[in-house]
Every structure is written in structure tokens, then in C-alpha cells.
Amino acid sequence: MRRGGSAGRDVGLIARREIDARLRQKGFLIGSAIGIAVVLVAAILPGVLHRKTTTHYRVAVVGTDAAALAASIRDVADRVDVPTTVDVRVLTDRSRARAEVRGGEIDAALIDGTTVVDKSLAPELAVVLDGALRVRAIDQAVASGELQRRAAAALTSAGLTNVTTLRRADSASERRKNLMFIGTILLYGQILTYGIWVAVGLVEEKSSRVIEVLLSTVRPRRLLAGKILGIGALGIGQLLAMAAVGLIGASAAGTVALPPGWPLTLGTLVGWFVLGYLIYACGFAVAASLVSRQEEMQGVQLPVTLLAVLSFLAATIAFQHPDGGLAVASTFFPPTAPFVVPLRMAADACPWWQAGAALALTVAACAAMVTVAARIYAGAALRTRGRTRLRTAWRGAE
């Protein structure tokens, strides 16, 4: 590799060098395996526990036949082959029953033949209520002496025929938002981890004086670009591996129902990872360029780390309030955009013009950060004694 070769060739060689060096490290391989295993366990464990744990439901019955129907619900709950227990109460106030459903105090209320739930009726509880309504219909037919005429209709048509929901169940956009939030957590971890790797690598080369050998064969800007590109490629690979394992595991275990268009959601996450990684990797590179020892790293990288933490906090707020003022403002701030914009897009809360403006601003910020980081690195790379001032590094590249 000669110090005058093509830029693409030099950057490619440095990137491959970074990838090969990391893949040979047992720590990286073990850490990746542990990370993927943790994601897999987190994806399948809720589904496994849900299947094996007995679920407790609370039901209220209102109406003229409330006491008898409540007794039928208790009897069916004891007989059905599902891991379910049902606590049944008889109420006289219909408004109170609806209020308790909305407030989460009870899971369902049977009011004059109509089943009232908040968002959706759990399948296990539906089995119990359906069976109880059918049993009660047969009992009424027997008591009235009309079994011959009514029994067939009672056995086939009675049951859970009317279900009223007080609020809409989770929509596809809600599931996309939940999926994207999980991805944002991974995004935050990957950006922070691999950005710090860039910083640590730069300082290691300066402290060991390897940088002097490298800069005799390749220009500093190309060296930095290759390092960021190579480590970033590892980050994307690990992110995709964890996302794929998590999605497959969660889907197989029944933990989550994948929303329509989830591949596009995953692609959006990867695209914003690239932009976010470029911003923060350049930030860490600038910080690392100014010091020569690992002991000095913590102080200089603190502002970049703090900015990443605050950006993630903005994302958690945007998850709860995607239309809020903070979420909208964070959309147009490049350091927070990679965390916030994918969440708002998944929740259908980010108009196309906001997403487009955020993308343009973030791309422009990436270009500016790459230019600034390359100049500062070029001016400080060979300063291996003590800490370099930012102004000195900037002027040293002239």
C-alpha cells in the first residue's frame, strides 16, 4: 500500500484490516454470541412463560339473570382445559361495570347479554364465557319446558355473540412502533459500542506508535475513513444478526405478532443506524484524536456519550408521545434524528416532509462531521505526547 494509491483502494484495505482484526479477537466473537443469545432469550421467554402460567381474569355480570350466569361462569372455568382462573362478581350498576372495565379493574363485563371489554377479549377468557353462556341457555330451555323446541338453537346459536370494545385494540402502526422501539434500543447500544471502538482503536494506535508506520503508507483521512467503514460494517452485521434472531425467536414463541411491512421497518432502522453511526463515530474520532493514552479517553469522550444518552431519552419520550413537541423538535436535530424519526415513522406520526427534512439535515450533518473529523485527525494523528488542543489540531492539518 503506497501513500499515493487510489483512495478507494486505501480505504478498502484499511476497512478489511479492521474487520479481520476484530473477527480474530475471541472477545468480539464471545461478546457477539452473548449479545445474540440475550436477544433470543428476551424474545422467546415472554411467550414461553405466557403459555405455562395460569392467567387470572376478573369478570362482572349485570342483568336479571346475573347470579345464575355467574355460577355458570365459575363452573365452566373449573372444567375447561385452559390455564385460567376467573373471579366473578355480580353488579347492579351498568355504568359502574363499564367504568371498571375501562379502568382495568375487571377484564370483561357481561351486561344484558353483551360482553364489554376494554381493547380485546383474551382467547382463554372467551372460551370460558362462551361455554358459560351456552350452558345457561340450555338450563333456561330445560327450566321452561321447551327443551325440544329450543335446545338445538341454544346449543348452536347461544354463546359469545356480542362483544363491545371500549377502545380500539392495538393497530398495525402500534405494533410497528413497539417493534421499532425494541430496534431503537439495539440501535443505541450498537452506535455507542462501535463509536467507542473507533475511539479506542485510534488511541491504541497513537499510544503504541503504530500510527507512525500506518501514516507512512496511507493518508490520515483515508486511514480514518477505512477504520470507520470497517467497524461500521461489523456493527451493521451484528445489528442484523440480533434483529433476525430476535424476530424469528419472538415469532416462533408467539411473543409478538409481526406487523405488516416489518421488513421495511427493519430496513428503515438499518438506514438510520448508518447515519447515526457516522455522526457519533466521527464525534468519538474527534475526541480520540486529541489524546494519546487510554486513561485520558473518559474525559474527552464524555460529551459525545452524554449526547447519545440524551438522544436515547428523547426517543423514549417520542415513543410515548410521537406527536409531542419534543419529538417534533428532535426530528430536525441530526444527533437525535436517528433515534426519533424511525419511531415516529413507525407510529404514522411523522409526515413525509418532516421525514424528508430530517433525512436531508442528517445527511448534511454526516458530511460535515466526516470533513471535520478527518481534518482534526489529520492535524493530531502524529501528536503522541500529551493532550492536543482542538484549535492546534485544526490548524495542524493546514
Describe the global form: elongated
Structural class, by secondary structure, is alpha/beta
Strand content: 5-15%
Main sheet makeup? 5 strands, mixed
Number of helices: 15
Counted beta strands: 5
What is the straight-line distance between the termini?
A: 24 Å
Which percent range fits the helix content?
over 70%
How confident overall, as mean pLDDT?
Answer: 83
**Uncertain regions spanning at least 5 consecutive residues:** none
Q: Strand arrangement, largest sheet? A: 2-1-3-4-5
Rg for CA atoms: 30 Å
Order of helices and strands: HHEHEHEEHHEHHHHHHHHH
What does this structure look like?
- This protein is of the alpha/beta class.
- It has helices spanning 7-23, 26-52, 66-79, 94-103, 123-143, 147-157, 172-207, 210-214, 220-253, 262-289, 297-320, 325-331, 337-346, 352-380, 390-396, and strands at 55-62, 84-91, 108-111, 114-117, 163-165.
- It has 15 helices and five strands.
- Strands 2-1-3-4-5 form a five-stranded mixed sheet, with helices on both faces.
- The longest helix has 36 residues, at 172-207.
- The chain is elongated.
- The chain starts with 6 loop residues before the first helix and ends with a helix.
- The relative contact order is 0.11.
- The model has no long low-confidence stretch (mean pLDDT 83).
